[in-house]
Amino acid sequence: MINSSIIIGLLVPFVGTALGAMMVLFMKKQMNENLQKALTGFAAGVMVSASFWSLLIPAVDQASERMGKKAVIPTSIGFCLGIAFLLLIDAVIPHMHMDESVEGPKSKLKKNTMLVLAVVIHNIPEGMSVGVLYASWAQGNNLVSFSAALSLAIGIAVQNFPEGAIISMPLHANGESKGKACFKGIMSGAVEPIAGFITIILSTFIISWMPVLLSFAAGAMIYVVVEELVPEMSEGKHSNLATLAFMFGFVSMMILDITLG
């Protein structure tokens, strides 16, 4: 079921994170606050758009073929389970956000380690989202094309590029060498292809539950936006920059999904 095209597709978002993390090797100073907010807003827009256009709408369409108007049931359940899953992950894994607020159980982990863990948690639903679309395509679902899966992978890779820089730059500012900060930034994205691969494997056993899996991934992505990205882009002095970046991110992903999907 997993062929070379799927493997490449799963790696595309990881490449985006890796390239972004490498920016720490060429930038001398910490990232400008306004630029960081704009990049965070753009990432949030991409994720919200992908959740609807690439995941929820296909989930409803697939469920509607068998259930009609009752399609709202599995998609609603999957969406809520996706949010609950990330709530659980947030509760059991100690991690630190960019504003240095700490979540999860008490831990003696270093500050930089908890920063990386926060990004890892963030990346799990992105990997799942790409994996579930490729799984739908591989299973011959006529409502999900290869192009649709690829467009989501590319969209997430685009928003992962600034995210890679957003994690590696603070790591360097907190005392890591540029090489270590770059490496940790790259490795924070390694969870995406792993999560995607696991999702594809699981989907082979629960083909009829694909609408639930699609909406589950959407719920998990929306959780990250509401819990992490929106607060980060809105903190501090009020600015419309992040809001405008959110708009561009949403529209960019929408265009990508419609034109390629």
Set down the secondary structure blueprint.
Blueprint: H1 4-21, H2 33-67, H3 72-92, E1 95-96, E2 102-103, H4 111-138, H5 146-173, H6 178-188, H7 191-203, H8 210-234, H9 241-260
Antiparallel strand pairs: 1-2
What does this structure look like?
There is one protein chain. The protein is an all-alpha fold. 76% of the residues lie in helices and 2% in strands. The chain is built from 9 helices and 2 strands, in the order αααββαααααα. β1 and β2 (102-103) form a beta hairpin. α4 packs parallel to α7. The radius of gyration is 18 Å and the shape is globular. The two termini are 21 Å apart.
Q: Sheet with the most strands? A: 2 strands, antiparallel
User: In percent, how much strand structure appears in the residues?
Assistant: under 5%
Spatial arrangement of strands, main beta sheet: 1-2
Alpha-beta classification = mainly alpha
Bin the helical content: over 70%
Rg value:
18 Å
Number of strands: 2
Low-confidence stretches: none
Query: What is the overall shape?
Result: globular
Gist of the model:
The protein has 261 residues and is mostly helical. The chain has 9 helices and 2 strands. It has a two-stranded antiparallel ribbon with strand order 1-2.
Question: What features would you highlight for this structure?
Answer:
261 residues; mainly alpha; two-stranded antiparallel ribbon
